[in-house]
Design brief:
- This is DUF4333 domain-containing protein.
- The protein is α+β, with helices and mostly antiparallel strands.
- It has one domain.
- Helices cover 29% and strands 35% of the residues.
- The radius of gyration is 24 Å and the shape is elongated.
- It starts with a helix and ends with a strand.
Length: 121
């Protein structure tokens, strides 16, 4: 009878250990400033039909969080004027990636933003 008692005790210990184990955290979703700039450029190019130059800095490790704002500079392809833009990131899902809403003034010096949205992938 002793072997059964030890087996039952070992099974109970394993069951308790399994209950107290914490799930592994999901890996963080990351991007680079160049990836954000490329994304913003694609969104703007899809609207204007013209290649657009965008600079969102040089950060090589951005931890993507919904609501995270990235400041970018957009060069107007028609005039060469530099415009401030904000890319607000949003996580779609860990496997789907992220998307951004792009806000920028209609004209240089205009405070009213234009919302543009697209997805990564």
């Amino acid at each position: 009878m002793r072997p059964h008692h030890c087996t039952a005790l070992a099974a109970a210990v394993l069951a308790l250990a399994a209950c107290s184990a914490e799930p592994e955290p999901e890996p963080e979703l990351t991007a680079t400033a160049d990836q954000v700039a490329d994304f913003v450029a694609r969104v703007l190019e899809s609207e204007s039909g013209e290649p657009t130059q965008v600079d969102c800095g040089d950060d090589e490790h951005i931890v993507v969080e919904s609501g995270l704002e990235i400041a970018c500079t957009v060069v107007d392809p028609a005039t060469g004027a530099e415009l401030d833009a904000t890319a607000t990131l949003e996580i779609i899902g860990r496997s789907e990636g992220w998307r951004a809403r792009v806000e920028m003034p209609e004209e240089p010096g205009t405070a009213s933003p234009t919302d543009r949205e697209g997805g990564s992938g």
